[in-house]
UniProtKB/TrEMBL annotation:
InterPro entries in alphabetical order: Glyco_hydro_19, Glyco_hydro_19_cat, Lysozyme-like_dom_sf
Organism this protein belongs to: Sediminibacterium roseum
Chain coiled-coil ranges: none
Keywords: Disulfide bond, Plant defense
Lineage summary: Bacteria, Pseudomonadati, Bacteroidota, Chitinophagia, Chitinophagales
Keyword Disulfide bond included in the entry's annotation: yes
PANTHER family: CHITINASE 12 (PTHR22595:SF79), CHITINASE-RELATED (PTHR22595)
Keyword 4Fe-4S: no
Protein known as: Chitinase
Length: 264
């Protein structure tokens, strides 16, 4: 985390008007009238404020690579929080950012607590299920993000629900995950910015630079490989949707259907 925010390159490509076009049905927006009916939680202003604290996001000077990284990030937050369906008004891909937390866990999901992570122990009574734009999950992720953002791991270990109460914090959790490598995985930013070089083991597992490896970083155990979740097609679809919107080619290796998950 940077202590002093810088101006994010997000502004080069994304205005509030475009944000509203891309996410017209986000939480807090009335889909029938596109007017605010409640707190506009996933607002452009909140996203921009968080992005200014992560200057490495979109930091490659090549505009094509910047656009691809932006499209990859938007694709994943839209899929993680999406409420679309095939015949949805405006199309499936206009329903991103509908949810702030994992729907099946609103009453808690204890399976996301891993007591073996001694540096970030789960707190009794707390649920570390998916929250925020990228659905940060597990006590060790909450603890690491809390340490980076608050300089205190216990803030979010003690109250992970803070992410659903503060939009800038929610977007920061997604950008922290996006820009932070966790061995044996690179960060999503490293993959999309062109700084990650696959090892021989990565190459043997089919993991090559491109959007498919980002999917692998985020959800490889479920989405990747020949038996990956059929709904992963929507994650690829979101990426191609945003690439068309921002007029950029998607690059190579868009899918992870031929990839082994990291660590396998």
């Amino acid at each position: 985390m940077q202590t002093h925010a810088q101006r994010s390159n997000v502004r080069k490509y994304l205005s509030e008007k475009k944000w509203n076009e891309l996410f017209p049905n986000r939480i807090g927006i009335d889909p029938a009238h596109a007017s605010k009916t409640a707190i506009d939680f996933y607002s452009y202003k909140s996203f921009l404020a968080a992005a200014d604290s992560f200057p490495q996001f979109l930091s490659n000077p090549d505009p094509v690579i910047q656009k691809r990284e932006l499209c990859a990030f938007l694709a994943n937050i839209a899929k993680e929080t999406g409420g679309g369906w095939d015949d949805a008004p405006g199309g499936y891909y206009k329903w991103g950012l509908r949810y702030t937390e994992e729907l099946n866990c609103v009453k808690g999901c204890p399976q996301y607590s891993d007591p073996s992570k001694k540096n970030y122990p789960p707190v009794a009574g707390q649920s570390y299920h998916g929250r925020g734009p990228i659905q940060i999950s597990w006590n060790y992720n909450y603890g690491q993000f809390s340490e980076a953002y608050f300089k205190n791991k216990n803030v979010l270990l003690n109250d992970p629900s803070l992410i659903t109460k503060n939009a800038q914090l929610a977007f920061a959790s997604a950008l922290w995950f996006w820009t932070t490598p966790q061995f044996p995985k690179p960060s999503c930013h490293e993959v999309m910015s062109g700084t990650w070089q696959p090892s021989p083991k990565d190459i043997d597992g089919g993991r090559l630079p491109g959007f498919g490896t980002v999917v692998n970083v985020i959800n490889g155990g479920i989405d990747c490989g020949p038996s990956g979740d059929p709904d992963t097609k929507y994650r690829y679809g979101y990426y191609l949707f945003f690439c068309r919107y921002f007029n950029v080619t998607p690059g190579d290796n868009v899918e992870c259907s031929n990839q082994k998950p990291f660590g396998s």
